[in-house]
Design brief:
about 375 residues, mainly beta, Thrombin, subunit H, seven-stranded antiparallel beta sheet, six-stranded antiparallel barrel
């Protein structure tokens, strides 16, 4: 296999003009192929878009540019499947998609006439398609509402009694719930946790919620009463009187293409999950920016340790009465963050690459 060694920056820049024009953030990105980028990559089961793009690109989130994708295609991408081949068209500075010989009735051959974007396969509706990032690390955060914003807790249905007055209940047990169900029949049970404070403003922006399990409606309240009968469908933790219910959220799309956000984002790490104080690769953190700040699923941010403010003793000579002047050191880049779930003011991100542990208060902002 021949490695990349001849594509010049002017050819590559020309290939990106159309895609970059669709977004100011994309236009500001400096995207380059790796010096040792392969001629092709055969997609195999277990690959992710991040892994594949990282094999070709210095910055994996440059994926939309090298496919010439617009914003609609980023949010609703065509699927890529195991057995297909990603070709590096060096002359055009683009990636192209083809099939292996015998796969889906197609042939590999010369990719020069193939489409510039991933192909769409209707059967299966993406069931076997390559995911954006490793799904196992984020599945609980896709289905469990571990962050509650604003007044979402207000008037939430709650467990007021349990079967045979048990202190805690488990799978198959009955729970009696009071409150408006708004037509819902399947609910998640949670217990409010600590408030999440913005590291900069110190204001409470959300509240953690400890996920306990799920309840299924067995019998809705009869006329003249507002007590509903539920059955515990699943139990991750023990649940009991006072625990709150929320309708199960829809599963968000997992196949968004990695891309820079539409606007410049400057966020801070709010919390680290799994009970640790420092986070590494493939761990989940929350940040203090969300949908209303321009983030969407698939947005990629760079992580930085915030530069410390230190005294400059040399600059204070002759000015002893004024004290030593303070100077802020530059933020130090430590990794990248893939946003996979977005709330109004808060988002979840998976740490994709990291050179040093990430901690609460670290910076997460649009890549330069």
């Amino acid at each position: 296999m021949k490695n990349f060694n001849t594509v010049g920056p002017r050819l590559f820049a020309a290939a990106l003009l159309t895609a970059a024009a669709a977004s100011p953030a994309l236009a500001e990105m400096r995207c380059e192929f790796k010096p040792n980028a392969p001629d092709q990559h055969v997609v195999v089961k277990g690959d992710t878009l991040w892994d594949i793009s990282g094999a070709f690109l210095e910055k994996p989130w440059c994926w939309p540019q090298v496919w010439g994708m617009n914003r609609d295609e980023i949010a609703n991408p065509h699927w890529i499947y195991p057995g297909q081949i990603i070709y590096f068209d060096r002359k055009a500075g683009r990636l192209r998609l083809g099939n292996r010989i015998g796969a889906d009735g197609g042939g590999a051959g010369d990719p020069s006439g193939m489409r510039l974007s991933p192909q769409l396969r209707m059967e299966g509706l993406g069931k076997d398609a390559v995911k954006s990032i490793p799904s196992g690390a984020i599945e609980p955060f896709l289905t469990e509402p571990l962050i509650v914003e604003g007044d979402e807790l207000k008037d939430a249905p709650r467990i007021i009694a349990t079967q045979e007055n048990h202190v805690f209940i488990g799978k198959g047990d009955k729970a009696y719930v009071r409150g408006k169900l708004n037509g819902g029949t399947s609910f998640q049970v949670f217990r409010p946790g600590k408030p999440l404070r913005d590291p900069v403003t110190k204001a409470v922006v959300a509240q953690e919620a400890f996920y306990l399990g799920t309840l299924k409606l067995q019998k809705e309240a009869e006329p003249g009463t507002d007590v509903h009968t539920f059955t515990v469908a699943s139990a991750k933790e023990e649940m009991g009187k006072g625990d709150l219910l929320m309708q199960a959220p829809p599963m968000p799309m997992q196949n968004y293409v990695p891309h820079p956000p539409e606007v410049q984002v400057d966020a801070r790490v709010l919390a680290i999950y799994n009970g640790v104080t420092h986070a590494g690769q493939n761990q989940v953190v929350s940040i203090n920016r969300g949908k209303l700040d321009g983030l969407d699923v698939g947005s990629v941010l760079q992580l930085y340790h915030r530069g410390q403010t230190v005294a400059d003793p040399g600059a204070s000579k002759g000015w002893h009465n004024l004290g030593q002047p303070k100077v802020k050191l530059p933020d130090e880049e430590v990794g990248s963050l893939f946003i996979f779930r977005v709330f109004k003011h808060v988002s979840y991100g998976l740490i994709m690459q990291v050179t040093e542990p990430v901690e609460v208060g670290d910076v997460a902002k649009t890549a330069e």
